[in-house]
Amino acid sequence: MIQILGKASSINVRKVLWACDELGLPYEREDWGAGFRPTSEPEFVALNPNALVPVLRDGDFTLWESNSIIRYLANQYGGSTPSLYPAEPRARARCDQWIDWQASDLNGAWRTAFMGLVRQHPDHQQPDAIARSIADWTRLMRVLEALLADTGGYVAGPAFTLADIPVGLSVNRWFGTPFAAPDLPAVRAYFDRLHSRPGFQAHGNNGLP
User: Which keywords does UniProt give here (predicted)?
Assistant: First the structure.
């Protein structure tokens, strides 16, 4: 049985839960992180020296970093759903490109705005910093808008792939953060398409932006 260590409200844990649902994988989840067992406990640090969720345990194999985990799951268990993480090198590279873009560019852009406006974190209440974050986030969402207008479907092409899990969760945060966002019709249509997937219903649009 696959074990996932991390609280369900974490966006990075939700990536892994959604990937498991797409692959039809049963799992057990343990609550770790703020509000639950602290990740600073030696038991957890022995699994991930960075003391961050999620951590995956698959038998005697332990892995951290959410994007590495979802890639591992697709490689290890995706034989019946090969389109989720294509084997053809160029198709896989396109998928990886958008997974990495979400982790680096997009995550960095929305962090201050989300932490300040949704989480109300006291360290993220500077209006200028929030405004810069919103501007950066909006610029990158316009990149996504142009991409989706071109593909007419999902981020790596016309079909759903592993890349839509991290990007889709970030889009959920876009629509769940209270600010005057521009109208992005292709992004809105994409968000609507994601609603048809049980994994997104369970982990991507579950009231946890």
Answer: Transferase
Q: Is the pTM here over 0.70, yes or no?
A: yes
Question: How many other C-beta atoms lie within 10 A of the C-beta of residue 38?
Answer: 12
Domains: count for the chain: 2
Alpha carbon distances (Å) from 152 to 5, 95, 173: 36, 16, 21
* 114 DSSP β-pair partners: none
| Strand 61-64 to 55-58 pairing | antiparallel
- Please give the residue range of the domain that contains residue 189: 89-201
**2-52, pLDDT tens digit by residue?**
999 999 999 999 999 999 999 999 999 999 999 999 999 999 999 999 999
Q: Are the C-beta atoms of 85 and 71 separated by less than 8 Å?
A: yes
Q: Specify the DSSP element, H or E, that contains 151.
A: helix 127-151
- 22 alpha carbon, distance to own chain's centre: 14
Whole-angstrom distance, CA of residue 194 vs CA of residue 62: 30
Q: Position 124: which residue type?
A: H
Cβ atoms < 10 Å from Cβ of 72: 17
Answer yes or no: do 74 and 93 share one domain.
no
Q: Which residue has the tokens 């071109």?
A: 150
Q: How far apart are CA 193 and CA 8, in angstroms?
A: 23
CA-nearest of 133, 136, 97, 98 to 116 is 133
Where does a domain end: 52, 78, 104? 78
